[in-house]
Each structure stands twice: as C-alpha cells, then as structure tokens.
Amino acid sequence: MMSIIILLIIAIIVLFGVRNVRMQVITRPAFAFFKKVLPPLSSTEKEAMEAGDVWWEGELFKGNPNWNKLHGYDKPTLTAEEQAFLDNQVQTALTMIDDFDIVHNRKDLPPELWEYFKKEGFFALIIPKKYGGREFSAYANSTIVAKIATRSVSAAVTVMVPNSLGPGELLTHYGTQEQKDRWLPSLSVGKDIPCFALTGPEAGSDAGAIPDVGIVCRQEFEGEETLGISLTWNKRYITLAPVATVLGLAFQMRDPDKLLGDKKNLGITCALIPTDHPGVEIGRRHNPLMMAFMNGTTSGEDVFIPLDWIIGGPQYAGKGWRMLVECLSAGRGISLPALATASGHVTTKTTTAYSYVRQQFGMPIGNFEGVQEALARIIANTYQLEAARRLTTTGIDAKVKPSVVTAIAKYHMTELGRDVLEDAMDIQSGKGIQLGPKNYLGHAFMANPISITVEGANILTRSLMIFGQGATRCHPYVLAEMEAAGIENESDAVDRFDTLLLGHIGYATGNALSAFANALTGSKFAASPVSGETKKYYQDMKRISSALAIMTDLSMLIMGGDLKRKEMISARMGDVLSQLYLASATLKFYEDNGRQHDDLPIVHYVMTQRLHFAAKALEEAIRNFPNKVAGVLLKVLIFPLGNHFNAPADKSAVELVKGMLKPSAARDRITFLCGEFDGDKSGIAEVEAAFLAKYAAKDLYKKLKKAQRSGDLKAKLPMHDLFAAALEKNIITEAEYKQLLEADEKRLAAINVNDFEKL
User: Taking every annotated instance into account, which residue ranges of this chain make up the domain Acyl-CoA dehydrogenase C-terminal bacterial-type (predicted)?
Assistant: First the structure.
C-alpha cells in the first residue's frame, strides 16, 4: 500500500514538476480545451470588461478575503464645506418642498425651487471648483440626494440627474479644454440644463445596440464647408429632456466614405449638442408613474454637427461605450442607491413611530408579533442600505470605478428599497395609501419601480451583469488566461498559459479544500480579524467565499461559453457574491460606528439574513447544476452535512424591534437622513412628534393601566374620558392630565389622513 502511495506521489511530481511532461500531458490539452469553451465576447462586452476597476469584490471572489483590507478603507466623512451645505442650502431647500403640490397640482417643481437649485449649485455637485462647481465627494453627493428624497422623489431626481451619468460627468472626465471652458461654467450656475440621451425604443438594457446613427460627411456649417456628422436619432425616457438646453447624445458613428480613416463603423460615440440647434426636437413629456420630474423624448433627423462637438474631440470617436461604462458608477453607485436608502430612513423613522402611537385592541400595534416580523425587516434592511451606501461611495471616492460593485448596489439596494416600502405600507395601511400632504410613503412607493427599471433593468442586471462580469473580471486567473489565449504566437501563448494554469490549479485546489474543511468544522478554525460577537460572521463568509470560488471554477470549466446563457445559474451565483458584499458593508458599518452595543441586535439579524440568502443561492445553484455529477461533487464539497444557514429566529425579530420602539442613538443612526428643520409641518415631523410625546408620557400610561387592572378605573374608556377619570380620582395630577391630553392630540393628528371636498 505504501509503495502505491509513493508511486502516486512520484507520478504527480513528474506530471506537474517536469515542464516537458506537464506541457504535453496537461498544458497543451488544457489550452486547446480552454480556447474551445472560451465564451465569445462581443465588442461591447469586451469594452465593459476592460472599463471598470476591480475593488473589494475581487477579494470576495478569491475564497480568502483580506478583512484587514476592508477595515482599512476610509470611513466616509463630510468635509466642513459639505456639512455646511447640508446644514444650510439643503435644509433651506427642504423648507421649500411641498411634494403633494409638486406632484398633484404643479406637475413640476415651483419656479423658486428651480432657481434656488441653480443659484446654490445643486446641479454642480460633481463639477470641479475651477469651473464654478462644488466638487463634492460621492458620499456628500449621495447624502444630499438622499436627504432631498426623504421629502420628494421628484425634487431628488431633478437634482441627481445633472450629477449622474451625463454631460457634466463626461465633460469632466473626457472633455477637451475648449469644451470644458464652454460648458462647465454655465452648467455650474444652472444657465444650462443638461440631459443625456442613451435609451431608445429599440435599445434599453442592451444600450450597445442603439440604432441611432451619425454619418461622417461634409456639409455647410456657419457659412463654411465643414467635416462633421449627420445625425438621426429617436430617444425616450430621457430625464430633464423637456427642459434641457444641452443634449448629450449616444449614437453609432459610421464613416462609409472613409473620410476619417479606413474604418467604416467607428462604434458608439457621444456628442454634446445645444438643444436650440436646428433640427433638435425636445419638449414632449412622459408621465413616469405620476412623478413630476421632467422626463421625455428627443429626436432629430439629418441634424448636422461639426466633429469637435464629439465629447473629447474627434479622437474619441467610437469610444463612447467605454466612456459610458466608466461613468455609470454615478447613477448606479450613488444616485439610485441614495433614493433607496432615503426610503429606508423614512420607513424606519415613521413606521417605528407609527407602530408605537397606533393602537389596536388596547395596545400599540408594535407589540403584535405579526407587525414586529415586518418591522424587523424594515429596520434590518435600512441598516443594510445605509451600510451599502457608505461602502459603495467609499470605493467611488477612492477614485476606482468598481463596475461590479455598482451593479450590485443598483440591483440589491433598489430591491431593498422596494421591500422596506412594501412592509411599511402593510403596517401603516390606510395612513400609507391615502395621498395628501400628511402622506410620506405614497409617492416613494409609486416611484420605486422607476429605480428598478432605469440604469439597466434589475432583472438583466442580476442575471447578466453581476456574475457575468464579476466571474471574469474578479477571478485572479481567468481574464489573464483569456488574454493568453488571444496571443497570436501559439508558442508564447502556451508558455504564458502554462504559468497561469499552475497557479489556477493550486488556487482551485486550495478553495475546494477550504470549503470542505470549513463545512465540516462549521468554520470554527477560519481566521477572523476580530473577536467577540461578530467573529463568527467573518468565519462563515470566508467559507462561503471559498464555496463561490470553487463553484465558479467548475461552472466555467464545464459550461464554458454556455454559462452566460444559463442566466438562472449565473444569477444565483451573482446573488452569492452580492450577499457577501452586502454583509461586508454591514460589518464595516458596525466597525466604523465604533462597534456600538445597541447596534448588535440589528447586526445579528442582518448578518444571519445575508448568510442565509447566500447559502440558499448556493444550494439552489447546485440543485439546478446542468452536470449532475459535478452537482453532486459540489454538494459534497460545500454542504457535506447539509445547509444549516437558517433565517433569523423569531426571537431575534422581537429583540430587534423592542430596542427600536423608543428614542435611541441606534434609531438615529439609521434615520438621520430624514431632514428635520424648525417649523417642519410634514407628516414625518407629525408622527415623530406624536412618538416622542407618547414615549415621554410612558410612565403615565403605565399608571393608568395599573389603575385599570386594579379596578380603580374602568377597563374600556375613550382616552379623554380615561384621563378625566384618572384626574378626578387623583391618580394623576393636573400637569400630568395636560401632558396626556397633548400627547393624545398629537397621536390623533399622526394617525389621521387627509380628506378632500372633491378630487
């Protein structure tokens, strides 16, 4: 037996250690197989792969994340200038917002709010200071948009669009000096209003397939024969298009007469066109779920522009897709997640308050376990949203372009935004569905599908982008192997592939052993950067990271190019990566907050949920794996003892809610975006005032309950009669009687809704 083992060891050493043997037996056959199964990449896919940067998601794909790297990322903070802007300009803007009037009467922002946004630089948050802009961080940009969104989605979208994917960002990164000098100062002061036209009737999520065309030709322009582009386009869903003065336009650029060179099809190109230019059509509006932000169409037929209107100049002809992918991080990583996080803050603040002041069957509805179950999800998801908002903007502020991370943020945060709104509507019921000035949920609930569908529809973001890009971009070997396969000299290609293959085999073997060992031991021996109550989560995430890594390798090996067509499998593995990212954000948020003890019930709930969702996605991917033998192998490696990552226990929900149905620092940390100000008469302020007043009188309510149980007061009395009877019997003092009356007056105001003479 020992002789056989020794012979096997010698065979393995020869097979892998002797280069000539390895090349003939392993490397060349593997290279031929790899080229055969290599997924074909379209030009737009290739550009997308090359455009973004790999950031923290790369660690999560390796199977052994460097947690010290995560903890070493900067904690997002506001500069003194950014904080002053929030304390002054943003707060002033909030006092000018009446969202019911904006949506139902004006169907537009009031003129004074438009002017205030322009004058105070709300449209210039990302423009450099030397051009008159604010040049704020991504975190500040996100916080400003989120604060406005707590009061009005329409106002927030109006602010976020000029600071997202569009002329301002594209000019800042790629514009010629002449273009920057011409446009950025006027954009900074709102003299010019920008929009960017990408989506059309035939191109939505597949933006690379846009049919809009620009033909290189010579025509007369300003009295002279000029080399330029004749453009024909038809775009829709373009935010700010009805009021824009400058139009960013993406189109397919063609040069059939080869006036610029040998290529006839140059590819996607971006240009900047004044909307008063002859032939530009704007002004017609869509009606996006009744919201009042400007959104509409733009078109043009045979509109001639000079070549130097291409963003970046003629040398950027055909480079538009890469420019767009690199700049998508603003919309996907900042703006839409900010709207979702605002929904979380509003729903947590108002639903905890409402659950405390709204009574049924003689007690606050927050005491019912059915309500607590939904309320726990709201609180946990809001903590998750705030954590993900901070980590994602940290990456963007670090000057990386984390395309996979921003895809994760866009998809999962907008979905979490939908979840918190649905749970809040379930709990607040009539308060949520009756629109009026007192309603703080209805418009956000109505608008949420907009975030779900724009900047890449969520279904396709999940099924095609997250894992599709992540598996290749983040893998330590696959992209390099693909590049090696593309080397023209086959000898050089095989040599390069041989080096990579050795590393890849060692990497895959290590992850398989790690996943299996941690599964058998419950991750008890996995490394963790911390001790205490969160230690176990780092250990379990290491286990799941290893499982994702080995499953990715097997999936790419067995399915090859077919993997991107197995969208359900890809989506589930993308979910694993996403849950690991969201869990990382949660632990980072907890550390950045100073490991606050009163955050632990939320952290436990969130982390249990994230690990449960990640393991469930792994399990479902294994169960549906097309190769059943490989599926069995994966199950043995990843879940040899079964899947024991359970959802949060009921008692966790009860404990979590109990700590949030009272004023607390923990509650403030995930509701601070609800911009309060002196004289605030909004529904948010109204229900919060009732909450604080009733909580301040909690001991008096206990005194009344005790008197009812003892028989000193009748068990069932209307509130005011109960207070009066308690005063008459000297159970409470005159001052306490007045306090109870005031608290109950605020309670009634908070639970009531608007009614109208006629609609």
Answer: 472-756
